[in-house]
Structure formats: structure tokens, C-alpha cells
């Protein structure tokens, strides 16, 4: 059963205390709650999944650079203590000067860190709420599970990008439609094709980036929020939540997304590739080894890197969908007959294709949201631009085109399966007709047997078959004289009815081929 008790400690009730532990920032949240109602409570979808709050495994990485052109240096400690992290923000370092650059990456949100970052940098609390919300289109038994997103024209200092990571889960979890991350509530979407679940699942992810230039200099500050790795999953919305550990055996689909660094630079440096463990680790890798490639983007340096990583995930996911759609289409082509497509299999396949179509519509919505936030026009990519490494504009335009093409193919596939369902239904109807014909022939044979023996038995009973009428008696011939005409009369009457020569109590005479005397002369 679903949890019905109070979830005030998890922020399901009104108020501003759930998002931040800092009293000053709580007052800021309370003053802005009238314009941003989402600040008053946690995402009802996550509450229904019984996801604990606050998140207890928050990881923070800080990278600093004294000025533009100098490499970023990652601080050795991870700031597991919120108080130490708060003190570190006030320290006077070369990177804290007007020309310095500082990047703070937070993996998993917790009220202690949210209050510290929000109050120190003056960040609008919608930045943290946008990342916390799980906008997955799921069916919940609650009227609170709905979208509540601001207009795309609203000017913000942050960008929230929703993307999808392909993973492989244990076999006992692959055939479950209801799987989610037990730490963040992010949905894990399974895929079924031709009646079988695939090895790969789709983990919903988010990356949120806030950045602001510093006054009186060329420096800037950037805050990044990422999701933690998939360590445990939930499969039920019942209380209490029973997490299932999966982190030691979770694998990336085909090793993860391909690197986007130019091949010439890869050959020159040979520094390896991103670890692909978490987005935090991947960003740290690219900032350490390849930040100069994106240095000209200034305050959007981290955003450009994150866009490349997100676009790489989308590209891998689009290829994944294209492969499986082609597999379904191939199974329906080059066939002499489709006997193995029975009605049950077709219905299951039709349901799977509806799932693809629904998911693709939301993928397009998420990609459109990224393009709107990043001011990327919805037009064809400019392939003549050679400076693609510093911009993801062409990448997202190509991905948007590819997703629309995949969605069109799925719609065509849905129509094909609908036609296949009609073919399977017709085949089943023909099979039923053949079976009915066989049954009718069997009944007809029994009827003929009855026509032979029933009149004989009737006449035998009529004469009593004793004395003179018994076999060998003087008048036994009278039995046959009566029985044979009665049997013939029964046969003639049966065949008249069987041949439809008697209609409505009238005899209708037909001639084979051309009709005589008009249509159905009555005699």
C-alpha cells in the first residue's frame, strides 16, 4: 500500500525549510514562494516513491583557475563536511579575485549545501528545484503528479538539461517496467522488443548549470549540479522503500558514449578518455585536460563541455533506438507468411511500439527545452562550420532532426503493426471458418447416419416386428415396402432443406448458370 502518513520531514508539506538549512536562505525562499510555488514542497512524484530526503551521499568538487588561459586546479578535498565547505568559500585565494575562475560541482543535493551555495552566491532557489524535479511522464495515483514548468521566455541565470544514460542491469530487473533510482527517484526505463526485454535500460538524468561573471574583472563563478551514479534501485512505491543494490554489476551500454575531442588532439596527448562513472568525474577530466579548447567561451566554458557530454549521450541513445526500430521492421519484412505473428504477439508488439512513440515524444520535448534554454535555433545544422568543437549548436540541431526522423519511423511502424493485427485477425478468422466447416461436415455425416437408421427403427416400431411382420414372416416384405419410401422421403426432405430449395415455405427453382424466367420465378 502507498504511504499515507505525514511526510513533513521530507518536505511534502508547505514551507521553505525542506530545501535549505540556512535560515537566511530560508527567508529568501519564503519571499519568492509566491512567484515560484514549487519552492513550497518537494516533487510529489518523488514523495510517492518514498525517496529519502536529504540526500546523504553528496559529493563536491571545486576547480579553480587564477585567470583566463591558466589551467584549472582541482582542490584535493571533497568537502564532505558542510561547515568546512562554507568556510572555504570565504577564503581569500588568487582564484577568488575579480579575474579568477571557480567551478563548484555538486553531485546530489542536500539542504546544507543548497543553503550555503544559494546564500553565498545569491542564487535563485528555482535553480535547485529545477534539478530536484523528476519530470518523467509516469502514471501516479495522485493529482499532484503533474508538470509545473515556467515559460521558456523567462530569463534565468541557469540551464537545466535533461538527458538519458544507457546502462545494463541484472536480468531479474530487466523485465520490470517499474524501476527507479532509490536515491534520487530518477526513472529507469526498460525496453521490450518482439516480446523480450533488452539488456540495456535508460536511466533518466539531469545536469543543471548556474554561472555569473564577476564584477570588476574577467573572472566568473559556475555552479554545476549532477546526479549520482546508480547504486541501488527501487521497484515498488510501497512504504518502506526497499532498495536493491546494483552498483557493483551495473555496466555501461557498449562502454559508454564516444569521446568528442578531435582525433588529432587525442593522438597528440594520449591522456585517455573520461572515466564515464559520473558526470562530475567526466567534467573534471575534460576541465583538467581539454579546457583550453573551450576557453574562448568564457563564462559558458562549463556549459559548453556539459552540452557536449549531454549531446553525446543523446547521440548514443538515438542510435540505440534506430537499431531496435530497424530490428522490428526487419522482422516484418522478407516474409512469405506471418503465421508466427498470432494475435497475442501482435498486441504485445503494438503496445511496445506505443511505448516507443510515447518516449520519443518526451525526448523531443526535452531536447527542445535544451535548445530553447541555450538559444539554439530549430533549423538544419550548418555543416560548413569547421569550428564545431567549441559549439554544440550543430550537434543539437542534428540530434533534433534525427529524433524527429526516428519518431516518424515509429509512427509508420505503428501503422504497419495495426495492419498486421488485421492480417493476423483475418488469418485467425479463416482458421476458425475451416474448423467450423470440419465440424459441420462431421455433423452432416452423423445426420446421414441418422437418416438411414431412424426411419428403419421408426417403421420397425410401428409394425412391432412380431408374428407375420418379423424377419422370415409372411408379411416381412411389407416392412421394406413401407421403410424404403419413408427413408427416401426423409432423404429428399433433408436435401431440400440442406440445398436451400425451400425458402419461406415456398419452393424456388434455379437453373445452373443462366437463370430462366427472370430472377427467382415462383412455382
Automatic annotation (TrEMBL):
Keywords: Membrane, Transmembrane, Transmembrane helix. The keyword Transmembrane applies. This is Uncharacterized protein. GO terms for cellular component: plasma membrane. It is a multi-pass membrane protein. The chain crosses the membrane at residues 445-465, 477-497. Residues 1-20 are annotated as: Disordered.
Amino acid at each position: 500500500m502507498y504511504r499515507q502518513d505525514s511526510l513533513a520531514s521530507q518536505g511534502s508539506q508547505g514551507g521553505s525549510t525542506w530545501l535549505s538549512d540556512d535560515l537566511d536562505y530560508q527567508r529568501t525562499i519564503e519571499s519568492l514562494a509566491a512567484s515560484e510555488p514549487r519552492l513550497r514542497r518537494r516533487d510529489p512524484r518523488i514523495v510517492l516513491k518514498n525517496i529519502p530526503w536529504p540526500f546523504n551521499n553528496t559529493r563536491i568538487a571545486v576547480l579553480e583557475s587564477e585567470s583566463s588561459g591558466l589551467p584549472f586546479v582541482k582542490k584535493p578535498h571533497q568537502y564532505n563536511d558542510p561547515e568546512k565547505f562554507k568556510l572555504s568559500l570565504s577564503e581569500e585565494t588568487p582564484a577568488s579575485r575579480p579575474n579568477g575562475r571557480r567551478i563548484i560541482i555538486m553531485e546530489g543535493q542536500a539542504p546544507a549545501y543548497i543553503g550555503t551555495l544559494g546564500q553565498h552566491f545569491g542564487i535563485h532557489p528555482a535553480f535547485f528545484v529545477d534539478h530536484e524535479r523528476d519530470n518523467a511522464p509516469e502514471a501516479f495515483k495522485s493529482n499532484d503528479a503533474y508538470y509545473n514548468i515556467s515559460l521558456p521566455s523567462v530569463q534565468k541565470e541557469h540551464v537545466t538539461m535533461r538527458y538519458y544514460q544507457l546502462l545494463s542491469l541484472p536480468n531479474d530487473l530487466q523485465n520490470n517496467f517499474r524501476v527507479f533510482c532509490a536515491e534520487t527517484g530518477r526513472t529507469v526505463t526498460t525496453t521490450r522488443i518482439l516480446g523480450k526485454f533488452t539488456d540495456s535500460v535508460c536511466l533518466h538524468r539531469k545536469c543543471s548549470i548556474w554561472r555569473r561573471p564577476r564584477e570588476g574583472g574577467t573572472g566568473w563563478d559556475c555552479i554545476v549540479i549532477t546526479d549520482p551514479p546508480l547504486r541501488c534501485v527501487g521497484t515498488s512505491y510501497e512504504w518502506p522503500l526497499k532498495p536493491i543494490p546494483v552498483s557493483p554489476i551495473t555496466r555501461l551500454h557498449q562502454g559508454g558514449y564516444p569521446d568528442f575531442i578531435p582525433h588529432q588532439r587525442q593522438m597528440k596527448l594520449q591522456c585517455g578518455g573520461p572515466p564515464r562513472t559520473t558526470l562530475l568525474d567526466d567534467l573534471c577530466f575534460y576541465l583538467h585536460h581539454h579546457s583550453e579548447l573551450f576557453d574562448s567561451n568564457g563564462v559558458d566554458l562549463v556549459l559548453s563541455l556539459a552540452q557536449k557530454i549531454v549531446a553525446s549521450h543523446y547521440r548514443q541513445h538515438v542510435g540505440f533506438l534506430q537499431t531496435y526500430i530497424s530490428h522490428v521492421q526487419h522482422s516484418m519484412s522478407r516474409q512469405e507468411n506471418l503465421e508466427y505473428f498470432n494475435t497475442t504477439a501482435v498486441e504485445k508488439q503494438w503496445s511496445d511500439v506505443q511505448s516507443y512513440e510515447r518516449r520519443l515524444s518526451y525526448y523531443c520535448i526535452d531536447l527542445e527545452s535544451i535548445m530553447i534554454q541555450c538559444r539554439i535555433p530549430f533549423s538544419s545544422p550548418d555543416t560548413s562550420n569547421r569550428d564545431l568543437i567549441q559549439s554544440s549548436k550543430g550537434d543539437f540541431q542534428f540530434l533534433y532532426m534525427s529524433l524527429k526522423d526516428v519518431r516518424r519511423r515509429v509512427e509508420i511502424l505503428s501503422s504497419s503493426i495495426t495492419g498486421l493485427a488485421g492480417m493476423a485477425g483475418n488469418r485467425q478468422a479463416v482458421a476458425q471458418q475451416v474448423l467450423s466447416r470440419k465440424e459441420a461436415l462431421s455433423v452432416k455425416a452423423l445426420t446421414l447416419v441418422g437418416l438411414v437408421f431412424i426411419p428403419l427403427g421408426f417403421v420397425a416400431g410401428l409394425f412391432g416386428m412380431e408374428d407375420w411382420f418379423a424377419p422370415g414372416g409372411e408379411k416381412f416384405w411389407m416392412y421394406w415396402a413401407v421403410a424404403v419410401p419413408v427413408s427416401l422421403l426423409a432423404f429428399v426432405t433433408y436435401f431440400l432443406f440442406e440445398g436451400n430449395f425451400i425458402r419461406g415455405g415456398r419452393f424456388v427453382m434455379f437453373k445452373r448458370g443462366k437463370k430462366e424466367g427472370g430472377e427467382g420465378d415462383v412455382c
